[in-house]
Structure formats: structure tokens, C-alpha cells
Specification:
It is a single chain. With 95 residues, the protein is an alpha+beta fold. The chain is built from three helices and four strands. Strands 2-3-1-4 form a four-stranded antiparallel beta sheet. A hairpin with an 8-residue loop joins strand 2 and strand 3. Helix 1 packs antiparallel against helix 3. It starts with a strand and ends with a strand.
């Protein structure tokens, strides 16, 4: 099992719109996505932005490779009408 962790940096004035579109996009993911979790980071580095993390569980390597993160980000950016800073990492449960 591998989690894809995607952390987004969103301008404060786009927070509600980001939550709306991201929930919609995540609900439309393929059925082979096993689990999805969304988090708002408690500590915010920049008072003008807010950080969110989305973790998507993949039980098979092929599903992870088939997942098109850039399409997901494109839908979010189109909805917000601006570029969104994000980074991704892959997590493997060890405990």
C-alpha cells in the first residue's frame, strides 16, 4: 500500500473555492482508489496562504502509476483561475 501525499498552498481568499472543487474532484476518482483523506495543516507558515494535504491510498503499484495528478491539479487551477503551488510525496506505512 502506498499513499500519495499532495500538499497544496492556497491563497487565503481562495480557501473555500479550493475546498469545494477539491471535494468534487476527489469524489470523481476511479473506484480503485482505496481511501482518501484530507487535512488542513494546523501551523501556517504564511499568513496570506493556507496549506492542505490530501492523501490517496493505492493498493497496487499500477494504480499509482495510472493516477494523473496533473489532471487533478489542472481542474483545481482552472476552477480557481490561478496557479496553485503543490508538491507530492509517496508514503509507505511502516508502523
Amino acid at each position: 500500500m502506498i499513499y500519495k501525499n499532495i500538499t497544496f498552498v492556497i491563497p487565503v481568499n481562495k480557501e473555500q473555492a479550493f475546498l469545494e472543487i477539491t471535494k468534487q474532484v476527489l469524489q470523481e476518482l476511479p473506484p480503485w482508489v482505496s481511501d482518501i483523506r484530507g487535512f488542513k495543516l494546523i501551523e501556517q507558515v504564511d499568513p496570506e496562504s493556507v496549506n492542505f494535504a490530501v492523501q490517496i491510498l493505492f493498493t497496487e503499484e499500477a494504480h499509482l502509476e495510472a493516477f494523473d495528478l496533473h489532471q487533478v491539479v489542472k481542474v483545481i487551477q482552472d476552477y480557481l483561475q490561478e496557479q496553485v503551488l503543490f508538491f507530492e510525496s509517496h508514503l509507505e506505512k511502516w508502523y
